[in-house]
From TrEMBL:
Keywords: Activator, Cytoplasm, DNA-binding, Transcription, Transcription regulation. Residues 162-259 form the HTH araC/xylS-type domain. It comes from Kribbella orskensis. This is Helix-turn-helix protein. InterPro entries: AraC_XylS_family_regulators, Homeodomain-like_sf, HTH-like, HTH_AraC, HTH_AraC-typ_CS, Tscrpt_reg_AraC-type_HTH. It comes from the Bacteria. Gene3D superfamilies: Homeodomain-like.
Amino acid sequence: MTHRPVLADPLDLHLLSPPTFWRCEPSWSWVSRPLPDHLLWCVLDGIGRLELNGATRELGPGTCAVFAPGDAPTAGHDPRRRLLVFGMHFIVTPAGVVPEQRWADLPDRVLLGALAQRSDTAYRRGDALGMRQAALCLEQLLCLIWEAAHSSPQSATDTAVLEVAQVIRQDPGRDWSVAEMAARAALSRAQFTRRFVAQNGMAPAQYLIQARIDRAHQLLTETGMSVTQVAAALGYTDAPYFSRQYKQRTGRPPSESRR
């Protein structure tokens, strides 16, 4: 049975310090006393090294740590590439939000930077909504760090295949071919299909059909477009064929989905 992580449920979070950015001074080093609370510590720029309980971690942009009460980390950096760190102290209920190894690399540095900036801006606004937004940003960062710490690193090829799947979902009405999808991922057709099935559980052509049917359902239920208009918008030249595919995938004809 898969263990349900604490972060799968809402947390009771309380910030004990403002979300803060700091560019570490050239002579900076960190020798922490045992922490009395939790600490989020994320590197946005620079390089350095972090040590905790005999384990060492090289630091770079995207490296994030969640320290537990009692932890006493130490760190240093290259004064020519000074660390830019974002973090805050907090308490949380229930316990169990701290990865065992304490740190992970977040692949989406743009999202990391955006959450850090929003948390800082919202908190410094000083109102109740700002406090809530800051806590939500912290909770999202904790979820991202937990996920990264417990997931296998994703290769550049896997990321490319994932991006192709995202583009298909964004624009399912386009006249996609498997050859074009493979070219986008810089893979042969056979390599691409194998990796795509491993990631998404279905072949690229079937994934495209499902993306079109999902979008068709949205258009039929949320717009005034007719079945024929929806079929044409999603690349079908034969409306009856579209209707058959729709019924196969949803269990009812598209006419019954219109509101």
